[in-house]
Amino acid sequence: MEEMLLARTEARLDVAAAVREHAPYVLRSLRHLGVRTADLEDVAQEVFVVLHRRRADWAEARGSVRAWLYGICVRKAQHHRRTLARRPELAVEVERGASDATEARLDARLLAGWVLDQLDDDKRAVFVLFEIEGLRMKEVVEILGCPLKTGYSRLEAARRTVAAAHATARARGWL
Amino acid sequence: MTDDPKRWAEDAPNDDLAALMRGMEADLPTEAEVSSLVDAVERAVVAGGGGGGTGGAPAGGLARGALVGAGLGAAGIAGLAAWLLLAPPHEPPSAPPSTAPTAPTEAPPAPPTRAAPMEAAPMEAAPMEAAPTEEGPREPADPPARAAPAPSPNERAPAQAARRARRSSPSIEEPPDELSLLSAARAALDGDPGRALSLAADHARFHPRGALTEEREVIAIDALAALGRTQAARARADAFARRWPRSAHRAHLRTLLER
Asked: Is A127 in CB contact (< 8 Å) with chain B?
């Protein structure tokens, strides 16, 4: 009987190890890809359940687990954003936070969220993976399934938007 | 690939943007957030198993690796539940396990959905004898065994180790491992539920985020019921149901507390 208990313990430790290894950048990228704080753990959990379910796929795939997980994160986050769009009461969190902060400085995380929210999904994914997660553009476009050229032009456009949003934030006294 | 522009984190157009990018890059989850996520995923993936069958069920992958590898499969989970359910303390200790009335196969197959909302915090603070105050850092998932005292084959060893560790600083003494503690606790249920309860409390103390927390709680509830502390048992069973709404052990707990 103890063998069963042990086997189950090991299965759990396996899962725990995988989550511990990948959780830092999974949670970070989900947040920057637009998942709201309140839903972050739920969405991250979905990501890891997918990892668990399809571990045979990535074990044989050429790419790294990390690249593969980013792909899941992007899809889950975009799905989450579409859900938010249908439930506008959830989408205003950052804007409300921002307007509450007209006198005080904006919390760095809130500011980052507001700036990134000015990007559409495609540009946001490129910006997050390239600029924050530090992937090469070649990896980014593989994950996103778009041509390299498109990746570069999205990055350019995203950078312009982010710089403009940041300038706006400064003009409003948020930083 | 060397056509990539320099990242803003390395070469931003201005200091503000550099600071913004550094802040985003440094926005990593806390240890508590990671642990909470570990719990949630475990519940969804491992504890959610048992029914088996459906191709994409989360119980498939990791659990399959460990359990089928050992020739157990879904029956292994059910068997484990059975092991915990067998010979409840109300039965005479001599009752052969095969006569236990519980049918592990009744455990409802957990659908592959997400686990319940997080309730880790209240759970860890659950009513517990020798209330485990969090001194010392959380154990690593796989504690090294080097500093452990010479192991005794005797089944009281974990309890002794636990007592030793309680007296001295746990950061110096190696905590007894989860399996030993709970095996001893389970063995004690039959004749000495008080000791079972105390060993379960030791488990909570040494392994506050252990892999066998669910099993620990079942044993503790069994022990409380055996001691006639029905109210405490019920409260803890309620907390259990909130934390593991799809647990295969819930049927057993319901039966236990109906008496």
From this structure: no
